[in-house]
Amino acid sequence: MRKAVARCAESLRPTPAGGDGNTDPAGARLRRSLAGRSSILCAPGVFDTLSTLLAERAGFEAAFLSGSALAWSRLGRPDVGLLGGVELVDVLSHIAERCALPLLVDADSGFGNALQVARIVRMLEATGAAAIQIEDQLEVKPPDRLVARPLVPLPVMIGKLHAAQDARRFDETLISARTDAASSLGFDEALRRAEAYARAGADLLFVEGVTGADQHAMLVEALGHERPLICNVLAPDPGVLLQRQAAGYALALVPDLAPRAAAASIAHAFETLAHTGAATVAMSRAELDDAIGGPAFRARAADYAN
Q1: Which residues form a coiled coil (predicted)?
Q2: In 3-state terms, the chain is what percent helix, strand and coil (to 5)?
Q3: pTM for the complete prediction?
Q4: What is the C-alpha to C-alpha distance for residues 43 and 32, in angstroms, rounded to an integer?
Q5: pLDDT tens-digit profile of 132-154?
């Protein structure tokens, strides 16, 4: 009955538009990128429109709108739950208006209970998310446990996943379930939760905190045939990506490369300017203009002027 109610008006729903007029649903494009791959799909973390454009330009087929990267770039603070859902939707709206790259959006723990999860899923999907990730961390953490990743009870997370599925307007939109149980409750509990999330209908599974080749192999053996599995790659190199690919992961997130690269480049340029009065950067103004589509934009403006 729950599914029937959630899908009752499907024939009346409009098709969402992607960046620059792409009417193919973002979720459908991400599903195609994941389907039948012989290699792992690498999705770099992005945090604004420019970083997403650069990911698109580099040839990536998907990207990850990282909650950590947004906390660092928007707030200049650690990722400890300070960013709100409306702020996340605002960032996504600017990206989706400009870029067609399918995005897996980090919605943290859904910004509240199951009803709030449903609302943020509707908002993110309407704004252009291809996939929406919900984690099983406690939404409001005690001040002395900000880094400890306390978890909600399993039934609470199952309710959130059901709410997320019912809230999405298009079956193509993927719901990703992340568990952080490995670091606090151990690998066995993380595996148990991931299995429950698969049974609850999650389209993608992300078990954070897996360590060692044995645990990776056990996870893929238990769940790899059920759902595409996501892994984090915090120190990317070809060897690590090949290992995760050989293990059977479908999607590798590189969440913090872009903000770290941007911060390092900006810090170096500013420090050089402050101490020497001059600074050089690797990208010229012309190259930046080309990256953001300046020539095509001006040509379009000229067409409208005639």
Answers
A1: none
A2: 55, 10, 35
A3: 0.90
A4: 14
A5: 999 999 986 665 555 667 899 99
